[in-house]
Amino acid sequence: MRKFGRKTDQRRALLKGLVANLVMRERIKTTQARAKEMRSLAERLITYAKKNNLTGRRQVAAVLPAQAAKKLFKEIAPRFAERRGGYTRIIRLGQRMTDGAEVAYIEFLKD
User: Fold this and answer.
1) 48-85 pLDDT, tens per residue?
2) pLDDT tens digits for 16-39?
3) Would the pTM of this model clear 0.90, i.e. be above it?
4) Are 80 and 49 in contact (CB under 8 A)?
5) Containing domain of residue 70, as a range?
6) What are the phi and psi torsion angles at 104 (to 5°)?
7) How many domains does the chain have?
8) Distance of CA 105 to the CA centre of its chain
9) Coil, helix or strand for 111?
10) Contact partners, residue 68, CB within 8 Å, separation at least 6
């Protein structure tokens, strides 16, 4: 697990914010390390949303704000109803000019 130089609660808040932005925009640009770390959380939330039961709704609500959770259940999860996993894609973009960090897009697949 990557720590990103942050304490546990700060790291969780960072990942929750990244996943919420990913759900709302469906594609975000971030560092490659952050993209790889948030992928597991995003895919887990989609799996919960696909089940569409009370437990899944509570699990998603614990991580995402209401508007993002609503979009996840209504638009994104039904798109992956037949898929068993691998809902996201990471596209590497190379190094950032300012600090040399590896940058990547993370996005949901279209099917």
Assistant:
1) 999 999 999 999 999 999 999 999 999 999 999 999 99
2) 999 999 999 999 999 999 999 999
3) yes
4) no
5) 8-108
6) -150, 155
7) 1
8) 12
9) coil
10) 20, 23, 24
Give the number of C-alpha atoms closer than 13 A to the C-alpha of residue 29, restricted to the C-beta side. 7
And the tokens for 62?
């614990």
What H or E segment, with its residue span, contains residue 32?
A: helix 32-51
Inter-CA distances, 100 with 25, 43, 93, 95, 97, Å: 25, 28, 12, 5, 6
Q: Is residue 1 part of a domain?
A: no
Cα–Cα distance for residue pair 106/90, rounded to 1 Å: 4
- Give the number of other Cβ atoms within 10 Å of residue 107's Cβ: 18
Kindly state whether residue 81 falls inside one of the protein's structural domains: yes
